[in-house]
Amino acid sequence: MKAAGGMKAAGRAALGFRSHSGWAAMVVVAGSPGAPVVIERRRVQTADSRISGSLQPYHAAKEMQLAEAEAFLDRCVAASRRMAETAVRDAVGEVAGKGYAAAGACVLLGSGRPADGLAATLRSHPMIHTAEGDFFRDALKTACERCGLPVLGVKEKELIRHAAAVLGVTADHLQLRATELGRGIGPPWRQDEKLCAIAGWFALRELR
After folding, report:
1. What is the rounded CA–CA span in Å between residue 30 and residue 203?
2. Percent of the chain with pLDDT over 90
């Protein structure tokens, strides 16, 4: 298996993402599913501060006429995907520089169901929140795909149960291991990083 630039990879790595409004936590897990290690952790910006309202684009679009809202959201989509793609390419390059080949990624998903169409979304505050969550998660998913990485999606509330079953461990053991994984890279190691590490570990196991 070859990493970027023709380097012979020492192993495989996978990226785990947990998205927020305008940014995401990212953790890269490498090695084998039986002995994972964290080799990278960072905050990825997914909203362009030069675009007013980009941190909460659907909240901003609610105050606009529909055609204006569509154009505004299209502009935000392009900017967020561009920023996310740059971050993912940089991460993949750094992973390769450490001797690993990026095998794929896992993006944690929400549980809300989107409304049918933009007009319906903008009439409903809960749907606005659902749409914004999907907006930033889609930017990450698209960025990974543009970088040639297969992407898994797992609902965040189902991650522990699902990953534990796939990895063949108990949920308690999985969460303990997620805490231990942070010791090698140091603080901060909060819930964001722990969930991203589990997502990356899960992807490392599934994307073989």
Report:
1. 10
2. 87
Structure tokens at 131: 């749409």
Amino acid present at 53: G
Report whether 94 contacts 40 (CB < 8 A).
yes
* Pair 141, 151: CB distance under 8 Å: yes
pLDDT tens-place string over residues 85-130: 999 999 999 999 999 999 999 999 998 787 789 999 999 999 999 9
CA 30/CA 91 separation, integer angstroms: 13
DSSP string, 154-169: EEGGGHHHHHHHHHTS
Please name each of the domains of the chain with its CATH number: 4-206 (3.30.420.10)
Name the phi and psi angles at 190, rounded to 5. -100, -165
Edge-first strand listing for the sheet containing 11-20? 35-45, 23-32, 11-20, 100-109, 151-155
Mean of the per-residue pLDDT values for the chain?
A: 93
User: pLDDT by residue (tens digit) across 148-192?
Assistant: 999 999 999 999 999 999 999 999 999 999 999 999 898 899 999
> Helix 191-206 and helix 171-181: axis angle, to 10°?
110
Alpha-carbon distance 117 to 178, whole Å?
Answer: 39
> Global pTM?
0.92
Question: Inter-axis angle of helices 191-206 and 159-167, to 10 degrees?
Answer: 40
DSSP, collapsed to helix, strand or coil, labels residue 73 as helix
